[in-house]
Amino acid sequence: MDPVNGGIGSDDEVSSNNSPKHKNQYHRNSPDLVAQLEEYFKDNPHPNENERKELGRELRVDPKRIKFWFQNKRNQVKAQIARAENHLLREENQKIYLENMMMRERMRCTVCSTCAGLATATKQDDDRKLILRQLLVENAQLKEEVYFMHSSFLRIYILSI
């Protein structure tokens, strides 16, 4: 900072910060390099600093680029797992929703077995309502169990990475 110019740096300082030397450049990795990194990732998704340096020497790449590639790859895998889990949960949710709707429809349109007409409010109707409540409770328990299983699987997988 330059006290003469009111705390603003001189023109030389400003222009030197904008020079191409100081800008981060985007590096696209070659397909061959990516294939080698992918192969290494399968065996060890968390290489330590020494492993990254050794890998950098072998592949002739800066260890920082390798570090960031592995970070990005781990995040990519985590996001893929989350999307897959989300898809499975949506399918399971849809299946349970359809089962629930079918049960409600069956309970609404009960038929008397003796006369083949619509049933009136009887003990049989009360029994069906009780069964429906039990099924709804069981449905809620199953939903909770499925959610718990999927979240446990995700936690275990993420911890293993």
TrEMBL record:
Top-level division of the source organism's lineage: Eukaryota
Protein name: Homeobox domain-containing protein
SMART domains: HOX
Annotated keywords: DNA-binding, Homeobox, Nucleus
Annotated PANTHER family: HOMEOBOX-LEUCINE ZIPPER PROTEIN HDG10-RELATED, HOMEOBOX-LEUCINE ZIPPER PROTEIN MERISTEM L1
Localization terms from the record: Nucleus
Ranges of the DNA-binding region feature: 22-81
GO MF terms, alphabetically ordered: DNA binding
Source organism of the structure: Coffea canephora (Robusta coffee)
